[in-house]
Design a protein that fits this description.
The protein is built from 2 helices and 4 strands; from the N terminus they run E-E-H-E-H-E. The chain is an alpha/beta fold and 110 residues long. Helix 1 packs across helix 2 (74-86). The longest helix is centred in the middle third of the chain and has 17 residues, at 41-57. It is globular. The model is unreliable at 1-6 and 102-110 (pLDDT under 50).
């Protein structure tokens, strides 16, 4: 019987979060508006490669968190995941909002 080994703990304080929106667009890490997203997978990969280089110079482990809710298509999550791997980043985490409910700033005005 094979037993899994506990994974190493990786600090995520400097992690890049890629939020996949319901329409499939990928918001840039730290973006403040819905318009601040990657225009293409190539631009996302280039940005992630630069992030990895910065981490390598600072002797830090690059970490990416892929976030989305249940409305996001699985195929899109896999495309983003593959792009992160293409950028050379292996520490990838997933964050899922299962509620599918809008956050307070997304809720419709009453």
């Amino acid at each position: 019987v094979l037993q899994g080994q506990p994974s190493d703990t990786v600090l995520t304080e400097d992690a890049r979060t890629l939020a996949i929106n319901e329409d499939g667009t990928v918001a840039k890490s730290g973006s403040k508006t819905a318009d601040d997203h990657y225009d293409s997978m190539a631009s996302m990969i280039a940005d992630l490669k630069q992030y990895k280089e910065e981490c390598d110079k600072g002797k830090k482990t690059p970490v990416v968190v892929i976030a989305g809710d249940r409305q996001v298509k699985w195929e899109r999550v896999m495309q983003v995941w593959n792009s992160v791997k293409t950028a050379g980043i292996t520490q990838i985490s997933f964050q899922v909002d299962e509620s599918g409910k809008p956050t307070p700033d997304e809720a419709p005005a009453k």
